[in-house]
Amino acid sequence: MKVFCLGGAGRIAREAVLDLVEHSDFEMITIGDFNEEVGQELVEELNDPRVSFVKVNVKNHDETVEKMRGYDVVMDGTTITLNGLSTACIAEAGCHGINLNGFGAEDEYAEVFKKNNRTAVPGFGMTPGVTQMMAMHAANQLDEVESVRVSHGSFRPIAFSKSITETTTYEYDPDLPGRVVFENGEFLQVPPFARPRTIQLPEPYGETVQYIIPHSETRTLSQALKDKGVQLIEVRGTWPKQNMELVRGLYNYGILKNPQINVNGSEVGLMDIIGEYLLQSKEGQETELYGYSLHVEVIGSKNGEKQRHVLYHTHPASDGSVKGWEGLRAYTRNVGIPMAVATELLAKGEVKDTGVLIPEDAFDPQPIFDALEKRGIYVHEEIVTGEKVEENDAAAQVQ
């Protein structure tokens, strides 16, 4: 098997590449990236005969397609704004494909993947990705599903890379049409910082207040659970407290709209300036607490009895007590490892349907959980029944 790791030299994608080197059966692992210097350094660091580097620019479609041809799967670590271009290349090259974001740019290539008897799975990291597996694990135990609330705490600096800065700007764009909840059969658009809710994450993260974010789980879970009668799907997230305070201030002042201002005779975006500052500043590159924390709540019924399933995950601490999980890597490994796990399952033919598939239709939860556990990432489940379901639901409301 051969895998092409597009954008593989990035801070998150390189963790997926490392996982493939350490755990997969791939015979050829090619890092394809625009940054040749960093890509070659990664090849030397990994020091594995299966690993090589090629320079690639997804904006050069024909050249990229030719470089991808012959690979079983492309593990796409490019940014949100490039996923349309990258998916077009993967589809034409006749490879399976998987990426981290899943914001919908991939859907238009479904027929090309089907024609080539290949599959693309958009959006498989921690969230989206593992979150859908957690929700489906709970839903599969229930006769009916009333509500699904997906939450996560992403504890990392606000601007440790350009792609993360881009994600921040994208997710809190005041006019973003994709920031929706699913309620009573409809998708309802909501503004940034909508529907605050208290979410209790495991230590060291603790109690957090989270807000609706524009992740693909809202759309994919509404599709996957339509036969279970689901009435409410909400997806929330939070970053470190200082990050949230900054983004809230930028939103309140209209800066997240990226207004054009005149600086010494040149028109520039105000948010672009702030993003560059954060990329070059200590404040943008560091945070007190590193890691990732998923929390998925599914309420429904089994044999006429109401049940509340809460799934959350834990991982090695960022304090240096576990080698390889120090500092920022406690965040980046959480995101990169699930993509690597899913990439190998896709290449091995574990996904039977072709076209563009949502994660819920592509994978069974348990093999994903089992593979993560081997890497020190554990999924936990708690089940409450009867009257306690309503009590716990009320306690999470934020006034």
The shape, in one word, is globular
**Which architecture of the largest domain would the CATH scheme give at its second level?**
2-Layer Sandwich
Q: What's the number of helices?
A: 15
CATH class of the largest domain: Alpha Beta
Helix content: 25-40%
Spans of at least 5 consecutive residues with low confidence: none
> Structural class of the helices, strands and pairings?
alpha/beta
Largest sheet: 9 strands, mixed
The mean pLDDT is: 94
What would your notes on this structure say?
This protein has 15 helices and 18 strands. With about 400 residues, it is an alpha/beta fold. The protein has 2 domains: about 1-120, NAD(P)-binding Rossmann-like Domain (Rossmann fold), CATH 3.40.50; about 130-325 and about 375-395, 2-Layer Sandwich (Dihydrodipicolinate Reductase, domain 2).
Secondary structure layout plus pairing:
Elements: E1 2-6, H1 13-23, E2 28-33, H2 36-46, E3 51-55, H3 61-68, E4 73-76, H4 83-93, E5 96-99, H5 110-115, E6 119-121, H6 130-139, E7 144-155, H7 162-171, E8 180-183, E9 186-189, E10 197-200, E11 207-212, H8 217-224, E12 232-238, H9 241-252, E13 260-263, E14 266-269, H10 270-280, H11 282-285, E15 291-302, E16 305-314, H12 329-347, E17 355-356, H13 359-362, H14 365-374, E18 378-385, H15 388-395
Helix pairs in contact: 1-12, 3-4, 6-8, 6-14, 7-10
Provide the descriptors you would attach to this structure in a database record.
18 strands, 15 helices, seven-stranded parallel beta sheet, Rossmann fold, Dihydrodipicolinate Reductase, domain 2, 399 residues, 2 domains, nine-stranded mixed beta sheet, alpha/beta, single chain
